[in-house]
Every structure is written in C-alpha cells, then in structure tokens.
Amino acid sequence: MDYIFWLDADDVVLEEDRKKFMALKGHLDSSIDAVSMHYNLAFNSEGDVTFSNRRNRLVKRSNHFKWYGAVHEYLEVGGNIIYSDICITHKSSKTSLSDRNLRIYENMLKRGVTFTPRDLYYYANECYDHQLFERAIEYYNNFLDTNQGWSEDCINACAKIADIFIESDDMDEAIPYILKSFTYDLPRADQCCRLGYIYLSKKDLEKAIFWYDLATKLDVKRVEKIGGFINHACYTWLPHLQLCVCYDLLGNYRSAFYHNEMARKYNPNNSSIIYNKNYLETKIKELGGHYAD
After folding, report:
1. What is the pLDDT of residues 42-90, one digit of tens each?
2. Which domain of life is it from (predicted)?
3. Taking a C-beta distance cutoff of 8 angstroms, is the pair 196, 211 a contact?
C-alpha cells in the first residue's frame, strides 16, 4: 500500500483510536509524508496517562524512510508531517528489567565501535536504568559534549543527571544540570518541579514557590508538538500540590487551600490532596475565616 504503519510488539491501538485511524485513512491526502501520533507510555492506577511523547507512525512508502541505531532504533522522517490526535498505547508485559540492550552496547564498546551521539545517550540510559550511576553521568556528559544530540534527548540527559544527584542528596550538583536544560529550549515543567523540590528541601520557600508557580504556567501542547517526553503530573496537579505545601509552611492557608483545590481538579482521588482539603478547611475555620472567602 502507499503508506506503512509500524508498532512495537507491545503496542496496541485501543478501540477509540482505531475509529480515529479509520477516519484518518478515509481522508488522508497523498501529499502527506508522515502522520505523528501520541505514544502513551505510562499510566496511573486509574488508567490516566502519566507519561507520553509523539512518534511518526504512518509514513509514505515511496519516501523510503530508514531506521537508524543499534538499540532503540529511530525512523528518520521528513517532509509534510501532520499531527493527529490518535494514540498508540504501550502495554508492556515485562515484569523485570532486561540487560539485553546494556550487553549490546557493552559488546560494542569491547569491539571498539565508535558511538554516535545517540548511542552515547541510550547507553547512558541503560546504565541509569541498571543503577550504574557514575557511568551514566559519564556517558550523559559525553553525549552532551558532542553538541549533536536532539534537543529533547539533551534535556532528558540533564534531567537524569539531576535526578542522580537529587537521589544522593547532592542538591547543589543537580541545579547546574537543570539550568543547563534551559539552554536547549524553554523551561519544562518537570525541570521546574525539580528546582522547586530542591529549594523546598532547603526551606528556601520563596524560590520553591517561584519554580512551582512557573511549572503551572507552561504550555504542555507546545512540548507535545515538538515530540518531547511529557510527565503529565508536572503540568497539572503536582506543582499545585507542592505550592499548597509551601504556602502552608508560610502560614498562608488560603493560598494553600487554593492550590490544593487546583490540584484536586486534576487528581480528585489523591489521598494527600484529600487530606490537605480537610486539614486546611479546619485550619481556616479555626482562624475565624471561611475557606471559600
């Protein structure tokens, strides 16, 4: 046929998206070179999407687009691309972390294969996933030093290094990498939340509030169109919940209540948000006010 549609073995097309796909096929113009679709990668206990990006899923056969890379191959696509609202759902049944990709890369290193920037990035990811954190930092930095990586991968590399330092309680080492991510594109909500978390842990509430507040104002649709990875919590309920914590520590219970209510709109069944609602309603009443004032 004129177009190729690709999926991984653990990807599915849910019924609603099948209908959208059929409708797309019915009016797809022959001038289209590729169709980008949402890729829903992770979900919470209620089935809501928590992590996603975009992939070019439907591509014109006559363009002979090719796959590149030894691991996590990517399809290099160009031309007239449209951005659809069709979703592909990742349904992995894996119960344990495989070392297959790590072994592939380490065998390449033993053979003296020169890594491309993409290889450096994905090898660092494998090291990160297998908790080889010092090696992960080394190869993320090697990747960043090439200045040839996709901006989204550069942003994610900075985030992963920052997370390693945050996990080891070395907050001051994490901050420069988060700020470095801003050199590749506008700030992302997850990076702002990292900075908010760091400053909250330092009890520097003014800075924590600044970064969490910025996270609430960023445009997720812009990142979505670029194809970047999206941590949906950081664009919705999480920064509001953390702003609630900050304002509560300052004794500003009405502002804390407001942000908790904003978080509750996105995540109404979250136990922390429900607890905060009851706590803050009681606190405001005790001070002679009303939480709806």
Report:
1. 998 888 999 999 999 999 999 999 998 888 888 999 999 999 999 999 9
2. Bacteria
3. yes
Q: Rounded CA gap, 197 and 162, in Å?
A: 12
Amino acid at 228: G
d(CA 282, CA 262): 18
Q: How far apart are CA 83 and CA 36, in angstroms?
A: 5
Average pLDDT (265-269) is 96
Distance CA 79, CA 92 (A): 31
State how far Cα 28 lies from the chain centre: 30
Q: Is the dihedral of CA 14, 20, 26, 29 positive or negative?
A: negative
Dihedral over alpha carbons 241, 243, 248, 251 (to 10 degrees):
-160
The C-alpha angle 202, 205, 207, rounded to 5 degrees, equals 90
Burial pattern 36-57, b for ≥16 Cβ within 10 A else e, equals bbbbbbebeeeeebebbbbbbb
Q: What domains can you pick out in the chain, each with its CATH number?
A: 3-90 (no CATH), 100-286 (1.25.40.10)
Render pLDDT for 274-283 as a digit per residue (tens, 0 to 9): 999 999 999 9
Are residues 57 and 5 in contact, defined by beta-carbon separation less than 8 angstroms? yes
Closest C-alpha to 2, from 28, 36, 38 = 28
Instruction: Give, as one character, the DSSP assignment of residue 164.
Output: H
Q: In the structure, what pLDDT confidence band is assigned to residue 93 with cuts at 50, 70 and 90? A: confident
Question: What is the total residue count of the chain?
Answer: 293
Kindly tell me if the per-residue pLDDT of 290 is higher than 70. Answer: no
With 0-12 CB in 10 A as exposed, 13-18 as middle and 19+ as buried, what is 5?
Answer: middle
Q: Across all residues in the chain, what is the average pLDDT?
A: 95
Model pLDDT for residues 179-232, shown as the tens digit of each residue: 999 999 999 999 999 999 999 999 999 999 999 999 999 999 999 988 899 999
